[in-house]
Amino acid sequence: MAFARFFVSRLLQAVPVLLGVTLVVFVLIHLVPGDPAQTALGPRATPDAVGALRSQWGLDQPLHEQYLLFMERLLGGDLGTSLRFGQSAGDLIAARLPVTLWLIAYAAVLACLFAVPLALWAASRPAALRDRVVRVISVVGLGVPGFWLGLVLIEVVSVNWLLLPAAGVQPGFLGHLESLFLPSLTIAAGMTPLVVRSLRTEVLRVTESDFVTTARAKGLTPHQIRMRHLLRNALAPSVTVLTVNVSFLIGGTLVIERVFGLGGLGDLMLTGIDARDFPLVQAVTLVLAVLVVTVNMLGDLAQALIDPRVEVQ
Predict the structure, then answer these.
(1) Which of these, 188, 255, 300, 309, has the minimum number of CB atoms within 10 Å of its CB?
(2) At 131, which helix (H) or strand (E)?
(3) Which residues, listed in sequence order, are joined to residue 81 by a DSSP beta bridge?
(4) What is the distance of C-alpha 227 from the center of its chain?
């Protein structure tokens, strides 16, 4: 019952956030220089032809009427029609959304697989060589741009070693695992350092707790103490850090998708921006905002499940 109230409360809180996102994106996309009708017809189009196309697309209407029309369609489940493709924006998004979801989930799993062992290894001997090595790796990882790392991985792993595909998404579960490994690793490399630093700090704090001292006095092995007491009590703050990183990198996947030619929502968004495709950009941005809100809700729920002291309100 408490979780049901939690979900309803967070969903109601998300409504004004999503409305604000639609308004901000609508205003910003109309501030971008360029005319979608002129872009579609080319530089040699006559003013009459451009005006006729603007009228057909409703771009000659006042901005507030265009926004109200967009919201009216949105409430009816219609995300609009793409000016660039002439298709429903919802259909275009539905066709490309699975790739982006795969990429985000794959990167989050890789980040956890790297971060947890590294944090525990570093915290096992504070200020020792292993701790210094992990901290140096974290600093370097934070300073490496994702698009540069992606290009290096393509050049080394795909072109020189011929181990993994350089671009595109292969069909099937194993095909997705193979073809999305490099882009997911690129994103995970940016997420891992912050999670490592957060988890290492929490493990060191929990290590000095009385219940850990009691566990040692009872004769539990270091592995048993680590798995039963340290991780459970240190994971909650790291889940928050991971959630914030995933939310931030939902927008960051735009560039990575273009680097690896994945054809996900990021590639669709950049295509829409290039073509001044207002309805498509608004629809993709709204879907990305929904993803961010969903990830934050799941993060709050996971934190409450890991740490019973966190109240679900």
Answers:
(1) 309
(2) helix 129-143
(3) 88
(4) 29
Q: In Å, how far are 96, 146, 246, 273, 286 from 141, measured between CA atoms?
A: 29, 9, 16, 30, 30
| Residue corresponding to tokens 């009590």 | 233
Residues 32, 276 contacting (CB under 8 angstroms): yes
Q: How far apart are CA 235 and CA 271, in angstroms?
A: 39
How do residues 83-102 score in pLDDT, each as one tens digit? 788 888 889 999 999 998 99
Question: What is the pLDDT of the chain when averaged over all its residues?
Answer: 82
Cα–Cα distances in Å, from 259 out to 168, 190, 288?
10, 16, 19
Q: Distance between CA atoms of 242 and 107, rounded to whole angstroms?
A: 11
Separation CA 40–CA 30 (nearest Å): 16
- Candidates 8, 18, 15, 11; CA nearest to 285 is 18
18, 292 in Cβ contact below 8 A?
no
CA atoms of 290 and 312, how far apart (whole Å): 21
Which residue reads 């790739």 in tokens?
Answer: 99
Can you name the residues that pair with 88 across neighbouring β-strands?
A: 81
What's the rounded Cα separation, in Å, for the pair 88 and 29? 19
Number of C-alpha atoms within 13 angstroms, CB side, residue 143?
6
Q: Give the DSSP letter of residue 161.
A: S
Which long-range contacts does 112-117 make (Cβ < 8 Å, 24+ apart)?
A: 112/195, 112/242, 114/188, 114/192, 114/196, 115/191, 115/192, 115/195, 115/196, 115/199, 115/238, 115/242, 116/199, 116/231
In the three-class reduction of DSSP (H, G, I as helix; E, B as strand; rest coil), residue 186 is classed as helix
The pTM is what?
Answer: 0.80
How large is the average pLDDT for residues 165-177?
A: 87
DSSP 170: -
Of 81, 245, 263, residue with least CA distance to 183: 263
